[in-house]
Amino acid sequence: MEGDPTLRLRVFDLNCWAIRYLSKRRQERVRLIGEVLQREGFDLVLLQEVWSEQDYNDLKVKLGGYYPFSHYFRSGVIGSGLCIFSRFPILDTLLYQYSLNGYPYMLQHGDWFCGKSVGLVSVWNSASLLLGSHQLHAEYCREKDAYLPHRLVQAWELAQFIRHTSKAADVVLLGGDLNMHPEDVGIRLLRGWTGLRDAFAEATRFEVSGRGRAGCQGTPRASHQPRCLSQGCEDGCTLVPNNCFTDKSELLPFPLGIRIDYILYKAISSFMVKCEELKTTTGAVPGMDVPFSDHEAVMATLHIQRQGQAAGATLSTAEPMLADVVTEARTEVGVGLRVAQQQRYSSGRMAVLALLLLLLQAAAALGALAGLDAGQPFPKLSFCLLAFLAIGILLLATGLYLFHTMEVKMLQGTEEQMRMVLQALQERP
Amino acid sequence: MEGDPTLRLRVFDLNCWAIRYLSKRRQERVRLIGEVLQREGFDLVLLQEVWSEQDYNDLKVKLGGYYPFSHYFRSGVIGSGLCIFSRFPILDTLLYQYSLNGYPYMLQHGDWFCGKSVGLVSVWNSASLLLGSHQLHAEYCREKDAYLPHRLVQAWELAQFIRHTSKAADVVLLGGDLNMHPEDVGIRLLRGWTGLRDAFAEATRFEVSGRGRAGCQGTPRASHQPRCLSQGCEDGCTLVPNNCFTDKSELLPFPLGIRIDYILYKAISSFMVKCEELKTTTGAVPGMDVPFSDHEAVMATLHIQRQGQAAGATLSTAEPMLADVVTEARTEVGVGLRVAQQQRYSSGRMAVLALLLLLLQAAAALGALAGLDAGQPFPKLSFCLLAFLAIGILLLATGLYLFHTMEVKMLQGTEEQMRMVLQALQERP
Q1: Which of A69, A283, A321, A383 has a CA positioned 20 to 30 A from the CA of residue A84?
Q2: Which position among B71, B150, B295, B404 bears the catalytic label?
Q3: Is the Cβ pair B406, A92 closer than 8 Å?
Q4: pLDDT in tens, B227-254
């Protein structure tokens, strides 16, 4: 940006819901996504839930002409599902896998197997740009959200990761499915602790794509005040009832839908970023009976400009509020910690009981061998079944004990880090 | 360093070998470590294998007067074992857990349970300092090193982590047990790709502590040429035969010992770092019959100086050599990938066979229930035992299949990243 002091950047973000064998009309939708990306010609494309590497490769072949640079992040059993397509050269990549991500035995939720991560690429287009694509643990029940502590640990780790990796970047851009509503503690923590701005809240113009309607068009909006949302319009929602793939019963308390996919950004050094326009898709692709995904795509046009002096006031002005947010998050992590400690204790006790049963059986078997059993011996079949059951429980309970030990350690670590940050915030004049 | 343009930094690094119930004379040794740290008054202390949090807390209480700032990194089942004590305020911390770290079924090696990581703290003392403490997977058999691909993935991830997090730091300092000899591909990769310098190779003075002997004293040494080592003196070795805790048979091919613990550093911005002096302990603590650990401690005195222009030539001058190192590492990762793919295939086949056996049994049982068994039925006990065996094998093989799938993904990801880097290196003029 030496010659041209401004840059207009068009960013596309979508949770593609492309799980092999499970997602409905996957191949058709991936083809449609490829077509729209080809037609619209964005600068940067951040995709999540592209679980099949074949789908990524197909997209790569299709989009190679317009987006010559791309990266697919591999992790976990199934993969991270994250990939990035770019018009600008990708200089370097880094994957950070969250330390907590649900429970392996919650097979029906499956988050644990996905290796949820944040993938980072450095992109160069005169200004150095740090780009993240990420996905946090899903929320399956808002009223009794057992995964909240895990999601908060992930939000904290994501924030820490961004803080540590973005220090020399000019612009940071983060897009992805946070699985959190805008007012949730996790997103307030992420935004407060990194200084990232929400493209939707900052956008000068907001438009619902495919309906030709501009919600709040032309009304300049003050920062951090998502007026559209408070006025009750559906703007910005990325999980909406009129998408044929969403679960309508889950959205009953939210008739307009919910907003859980975000494009966040900030300028670090002597640059200024403004969100000129934000768009989302809304349900079915125009002219088709199928949407791109069960989530809506978020599309932002960012205006990046070099300016005289460094902008870094976001964090310091928000500090008193930040302390409250960190305290709130720390309380939730503390609740999760106590639950994890209780689960560790229960599984440990179960393992000990199974071991005792096995020892008792071994003693009885030895007694029988030595001819010490005076009365009627156990039937062999029941004896064997009981032994196998005890071994099974012992193995399972030991596995759970180890898992919950890890969970306790990570929750303790996060709580300790948050305590340090709170102390530092309070000590500042 | 606005007022004072130079800073003398004394750094202590030690793999403490403090495993509860397993490490010999642990409490006594931790007490001795605390005493020497208190007496010598270093500026920064990087400790590994402090597996018991109680030991860390004891050290923290003991050292609080001289090192008011400290951090313990929690991860894995047992923990990361990493902690840092500092005279300067710790501003921020981040833990990066390596994606591969051995196999959970190799219980006798236990690396998998430790959550091997690199812990990072930002320290401020006029110059911003990025400090890492880390430990890579142990080498159990040098001739047939099954863990080499995992260690290379770790070295690569460590290098990437340093590159991404150190961009705005003035000085980067990394201390820890790399479990690699100085000429090994992993350490050449780490040094080549980050530009980190080896304090031992760069030290103006080298001294074997506790023996009053200065090896190579006063001989200025050219960079990247560990002359002492090539002259066959034991300088710099951190696993030595005259330490009563080391396994003498493992050190038979290396009569002088081996060097696997390092202090590495580099200056990023307009600073210059020089290693003024390097010391190691050698076996037993003077006046005692016990050493601090089975490893020797490494102590470096670094001279940090502000200079006019930024120094960043290390990487570019070493690029042709770097391409060779990355190619070599990529080949080894490729070998590991093929082994992992083979193991995944074997465990998948085993799972399918167990499933077939179970289905066969289920069919036989159903047949018996329907009164279709014409001949002699199976004895019930054998039938049950076989079913339990099949279930056990199915579960185990499925677990292994999932684990090796993850391993394959991570090895593929690393290979792909290395390919990208090689391409970028070759494309440069």
Answers
A1: A283
A2: B295
A3: no
A4: 333 333 467 888 888 888 888 888 888 8
Which residue among A99, A122, A384 sits closest to B75, beta carbon to beta carbon?
Answer: A99
Identify all chain A residues contacting B380, using CB atoms and an 8 Å cutoff: 381
User: Bigger pLDDT: B316 or A239?
Assistant: A239
| pLDDT tens digits, A43-94 | 999 999 898 889 999 999 999 999 999 999 887 777 778 899 999 888 888 8
Domain A7-209+225-306, CATH: 3.60.10.10
Asked whether A160 and A96 are in contact (CB, 8 A), the reply is no
Contact B73 A115 (CB under 8 A): no
Dihedrals phi, psi of B122, to nearest 5 degrees: -100, 130
Residues of chain A neighbouring B160 (CB-CB closer than 8 A): 92-94
Give pTM, 2 decimals: 0.83
Distance CA B132, CA B126 (A): 19
Q: Which of B79, B96, B405 lies at the smallest CB-CB distance from A96?
A: B96
pLDDT at A315: 47
Contact B420 A93 (CB under 8 A): yes
Lowest mean pLDDT among A132-146, A279-293, B351-365: A132-146
Stronger pLDDT, A315 or A189, i.e. the higher one: A189
Residue B177 host element (H or E): strand B171-177
Q: How many CB atoms lie within 10 A of CB B263?
A: 26
Q: For residue A275, what is the DSSP state? A: E
CB A255 within 8 A of CB A187: no
Per CB-CB distance under 8 Å, the chain A contacts of B385 are 384
- Residues contacting B38, CB < 8 A, separation 6+: B62, B63, B65, B66
The residue among B84, B82, B172, B182 whose CA lies nearest residue B134 is B82
- Which of B118, B170, B409 is the best mutation test for A, with the most CBs of A within 10 A? B409
Phi-psi group of B117: left, alpha or beta (phi > 0 → left; psi -120 to 50 → alpha; rest → beta): beta
Residue type, A93: T
Residue B295 appears among annotated catalytic residues = yes
CA B419, chain centre distance (Å): 24
Q: What number is the average pLDDT over the span A266-290?
A: 85
B86 pLDDT exceeds 60? Answer: yes
Q: Is the pLDDT of residue B312 over 70?
A: no
CB A149 within 8 A of CB A332: yes
And the tokens for B13?
């690094």
- From the list A96, A384, A409, the residue facing B381 with the nearest CB is A384
Query: Minimum mean pLDDT among A356-360, B186-190, B421-425: which range?
Result: B421-425
Q: Outline where DSSP puts E strands in A26-68.
A: 44-50
Q: Does the beta-carbon distance from A402 to B113 stay under 8 Å?
A: yes
Question: Of all helices (H) and strands (E), which one includes residue B123?
Answer: strand B117-125
Take residue B112 and report the two structure tokens written for it. Answer: 């998998």
Q: What is the mean pLDDT of residues B67-79?
A: 83
Tell me what pLDDT residue B179 has: 87
Categorize the per-residue pLDDT at A377 as very low, low, confident or very high, splitting at 50, 70 and 90. Answer: low
- Give percent above pLDDT 90 in chain B: 35
Q: Do A76 and B406 touch (CB under 8 A)?
A: yes
For the segment A237-260, what is each residue's pLDDT rounded down to a tens digit? Answer: 888 888 888 888 888 888 888 899
DSSP-derived 3-state class of residue B371: coil
| Active-site residue identified among A71, A134, A137, A295 | A295
Sequence-ordered alpha helix ranges (H) in A181-252? 185-194, 199-202, 227-230
Instruction: Please indicate if any CB of chain A lies within 8 Å of the CB of B224.
Output: no
How far is residue B130 from each of residues A163, A189, B164, measured CA to CA in Å? 13, 24, 12
- For chain B, give every domain's residue range: 7-209+225-306, 318-368+376-427
**pLDDT value at A228 more than 50:** no
Measured between CB atoms, does B387 come within 8 Å of chain A? no
**CB contact set of A306 (below 8 Å; sequence gap of 6+):** A1, A5, A6, A127, A270, A271, A272
